[in-house]
Amino acid sequence: MASRLNPYISFGGNARQAMEFYKDVFGGTLALNTYGESGQQDTPEADQIMHAMLETPSGFTLMGADTPPGMNVTQGDNFSVSLSGDDDAELRGYWEKLSAGGSVAVPLERQMWGDVFGMCTDRFGVPWMVNISEPQA
Q: Which intervals hold domain Glyoxalase/fosfomycin resistance/dioxygenase (predicted)?
């Protein structure tokens, strides 16, 4: 298996809902593992997500988990998830779904460097950047 770089997002108790939302946005296969399945079945966190991994048909991988008790989670302050490529329709589709119910910081429009770019924060507080470049000749 090749090495890969992908975001890993910590959630404050809503990892299942967030990861299912991302599956609805991007499609693919979502694997969810709870704390209970990992030997913590008699704890209040038994139904929370210990590890989630979404692998999409476009080759994206997104991982996440509910933050264990005692650890603080500050969502959106230390990362952005970047989507980039030259498939205008696909990337605009992701943008529409991600920005719905969230907030737009930079509208998806042509920028001074020539690409179409936008920044939004989805309804789960996760910041996204979408960059659409011209198709390569």
A: 5-130
Instruction: Tell me what the mean pLDDT of segment 25-38 comes to.
Output: 93
Given this model, what pLDDT does residue 78 score? 55
Alpha helical stretches, state H, 1-137: 15-26, 88-99
Query: Domain 81-132 maps to which CATH number in 3.40.50.1240, 3.90.1150.10, 3.30.720.110, 3.30.390.10?
Result: 3.30.720.110
The whole model's pTM is what?
0.77
Residue that has been written with the tokens 């119910």 in this structure = 101
37 φ/ψ angles, rounded to the nearest 5 degrees: -70, -15
Residue type, 24: D
Kindly state the average pLDDT of the residues 50-76.
Answer: 85
User: Based on the number of CB atoms within 10 Å of its own CB, is 100 exposed (0-12), middle (13-18) or buried (19 or more)?
Assistant: exposed
Nearest CA among 87, 85, 84, 86 for reference residue 128: 84
Please, are residues 28 and 57 in contact by the beta-carbon 8 Å criterion?
yes
